[in-house]
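User: Can you help me understand a structure? I only have the sequence.
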Amino acid sequence: MKIKELSPEAKEALDNEEAVSLYSEYRAEGYPLLISKKQFAEISGCSISTVDNQIKNGYGLPNYKKVGAAKNAKVLFSLIDVCNFFSAQTIQTA
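Assistant: Let's start by predicting it. Here is the structure, written out as tokens:
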């Protein structure tokens, strides 16, 4: 898929060059601006149940939105928040 030029709003919202690179890569792979738990699990390399546990425990995830008030309401992650989250998690070693 062809990589489109990032919008000024997206560039401004992304924290650093690594986040911009991740965002461009995920968009080129066809991920939408809002991704589901399943898509987040796929990107992060964990299971959906791990994502559910992280939501339940309230840590280890980027910001997300719940669509509805039910316990099993749909959860969506902003692709920009996901890219910023992953780029902030990088640990440099010697």
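Now, to help you interpret it: The chain has a mean pLDDT of 88. The helical segments are 8-13, 17-28, 37-44, 48-57, 79-88. Let me know which part you'd like to focus on.
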